[in-house]
Amino acid sequence: MTMKIEDIGRAVRETQYAVRGPIVARAQALERAGRSIIYCNIGNPQSLGQRPLTWVRQVLALCEYPEVLASVPEGTFPADVIATAKRVLSESKHGLGAYTDSRGYAFVREAVAQFIRERDGIEADPETLYLTDGASKAAQAVLRLLIDDARDGIMIPIPQYPLYSATITLYGGAMIPYALDEKAGWALSRETLERAVEDAKARGVKPRAIVVINPGNPTGAVLHEANIGMVLGFAARHGLTVLADEVYQENLYVPGDKFVSFAKVLETRGLIDVSLFSFHSVSKGFLGECGHRGGYVELRNVPAPVRDELTKLQSVSLCANSVGQIVTYLMVRPPRPGDPSFECYDRERRDILDALKRKARLLVEGLNAVPGILCNAVTGAMYAFPSLTLPPGVTDAQYCMALLEETGICLVPGSGFGQAAETWHFRATILPPMEQIQAVVEQIAAFHVKFVAERAAEPEDEPVPRPAPRGRKITPA
Question: Is the pLDDT of residue 214 over 90?
Answer without folding.
Answer: yes
